[in-house]
């Protein structure tokens, strides 16, 4: 399996939000782009976030003004780019006088309201809590309310990958970069997938491997990393809904960290995140008992509804690859990104490595990457992603209107499924519903509103391979699926894979 004749402008290693963001931006500027991901798109850090597009209120305490300003502005940009997967959300911070004085919080919120461009989102305000209708403990009588956004993090990655492909990028998953070496002014990149080993060539190599960024440089490229990386584990727990309403809570704790309580998928509350140094294998990160106890304690200190470990439906953990700034406190390590360009002499193929970064600022990080690389591509096009709608936002009037259109077209479909489809796919939902007029035409019913028609689409157009890809990262239905239902989906996917192989051979 040789692809040696093709010389790409860019080879991006890593299919998380930064990798697909860079691939998308570059492809839209006229570069030929190849991206490989060893597992699934958003398979690691990018799907283990708190599902927020936010300015980072707590970063103001660490004087990260540039990062906060950029992130605040990006909230509005991303909300316009993908209103089906991103929505405004109000956040309530209960006031705990012994932790942070009211004047300090008001000052921070003033900066939060005015540091970045704010057009669609409401400003902050003081709120009072009445014991009879507040989910908080009676002793918590006031707080502060402000705006940020919620996002389906893994779909943000997939939609950027779809857009990159439509701009001409080649994106492959389940494909590991075994090694890469410079030769005659280009990179020779050796790749491995289930079918075997093959090579491509690229003028520039982009290392967007997230938690593996330093390891990739040292072990796979046999080079020296310019920066150290610190892995900070963030864990979340999912519990049944602990309060009514659609607002999130941001809870302060005695250790100066904060924990979010976020309405999740209509039925649950998402509690997180933690901050702890992680030294293990990023492939094997799991929540610790200490983290579980910590999140339960913070929640129980604030809410009337008391939780125990038996209430936990699901947990997830990820590691944030932060650029090592030698801070003693994991919470204080900068969330800003650092781009490292390595090229010892003029004719040597350049390497661009991405250290750090966060979901909210992925687009700006990609623009910064293009700034670093434009000297190698004199004909590089101009920046374009700020106004470009992501897949599914085209001609989208509103989610409610789209949901109604689906419901009216497909006889027998339930409202929960139409809402999920509208939020996940936006107007691209018609790609697999176009000729469907009844649920009976959707093929095998796997339960909980998942039908063969959608599964086929996800495999064909969204790089889904396994039931985990579909249930965890494409649809979020994994919280409802039982073992027997998952087995039926696995069997269908295996049969579908074999049919596709036979078709390719024919």
From TrEMBL:
GO terms under cellular component: glycerol-3-phosphate dehydrogenase (FAD) complex
InterPro entries: DAO_C, DAO_C_sf, FAD-dep_OxRdtase, FAD/NAD-bd_sf, G3P_DH_FAD-dep
PROSITE patterns: FAD_G3PDH_1, FAD_G3PDH_2
Single GO MF annotation: glycerol-3-phosphate dehydrogenase (quinone) activity
Gene3D superfamilies: Alpha-glycerophosphate oxidase, cap domain, D-Amino Acid Oxidase, subunit A, domain 2, FAD/NAD(P)-binding domain
Gene Ontology biological process: glycerol-3-phosphate catabolic process
Keyword Oxidoreductase tagged: yes
The protein's Enzyme Commission number: 1.1.5.3
Name of the protein in its database record: Glycerol-3-phosphate dehydrogenase
Encoding gene per record: glpD
